[in-house]
Design brief:
The protein has about 280 residues and is an alpha+beta fold. About 45% of the residues lie in helices and about 15% in strands. Helix 3 crosses helix 5 and helix 9 crosses helix 11.
């Protein structure tokens, strides 16, 4: 499966974003930010690199930039709000290399390095992390910064943790190219309609031929294949979380015909749309 490249929006202009995780996070993706997620209620399966594990209450993990991951919360009923977990995103440059180079930051440097392969902490550490993460949802200014650094201190001093993924990310091309991020954001905002290569090449400020080579080299996928993956991810969400008819979902997600939808869904999800929905209705 091809991971989607997403942009984390910092609507308030801050360098540290905290928000409730919603059910639409259930697709394979990656981004240039660090991510800390605390599951407060619910359970399910999480993937990080080549790690696949079950999780439950007070599961606490940290992921580094460009580590592919996704979450699958087991839905209890149709009234489930999806507010099971708090996630925090930040970039390394928000901390500043001059501060990170200080002697006192040695533990934090190790934490950031280990996060490149994903870190899982004990439920006990998860319980300690809940207060500062909840505060970050509403705090602003210095109070938010204090809560953020309290969270990092809890993670740095955790007595128990494990590295999740065995994937070696050395030499992997970073996906933080601003053109690529802009292109992928455009695809996520326009997947429901046809997106000609000529149009997306204009967004990237390239010729169609140069864009096709650039996109394939940057993502490991052809442009059309990537768009179909994005459409399939949206279809999976609608199949899980709504009662929309499959023939309605086909056109909501930008597929031209039902036969093309069936073909692409099997290719990217590994089963039919009907079977995919059935496993969430038991």
């Amino acid at each position: 499966m091809i991971p989607e490249i997403i942009s984390i929006r910092h609507d308030d202009g801050s360098g540290f974003r905290a928000a409730w995780m919603d059910n639409e996070s259930s697709f394979l993706h990656l981004h240039p930010e660090y991510e800390i997620v605390l599951n407060i209620s619910g359970n399910g399966t999480r993937v990080a690199g080549d790690s696949v594990e079950l999780f439950d209450r007070y599961d606490l993990v940290m992921y580094g930039p460009d580590l592919r991951h996704f979450w699958n919360f087991y839905r209890k009923d149709k009234n489930d709000t999806g507010r099971h977990a708090i996630m925090v995103h930040f970039r390394r440059d928000s901390l500043g290399e001059s501060m990170l180079s200080q002697f006192e930051m040695a533990d934090l440097r190790r934490l950031l390095e280990n996060a490149g392969r994903g870190i899982a902490f004990s439920p006990e550490t998860g319980e300690k992390a809940e207060e500062p993460m909840r505060r970050m949802l509403s705090d602003t200014g210095m109070k938010k910064m204090v809560s953020f650094f309290r969270l990092l201190e809890i993670l740095c001093s955790a007595p128990k943790f494990k590295i999740l993924s065995g994937e070696n990310l050395e030499g992997v091309r970073e996906i933080t190219d601003s053109r690529l991020a802009e292109v992928c954001s455009f695809i996520r905002e326009n997947f429901y309609r046809p997106i000609p290569v000529k149009e997306i090449a204009v967004v990237a400020k390239m010729s169609p031929h140069s864009f096709s080579r650039f996109f394939s080299r940057s993502t490991g996928s052809g442009f059309v294949n990537y768009v179909n993956q994005v459409r399939t991810n949206k279809a999976c969400y609608l199949l899980r979380e709504t009662d929309h008819q499959i023939n309605e979902i086909v056109y909501e997600c930008g597929f031209a015909t039902i036969s093309n939808f069936n073909k692409q869904f099997r290719k990217h999800a590994g089963m039919s749309a009907r079977d995919y929905r059935a496993q969430y209705r038991t």
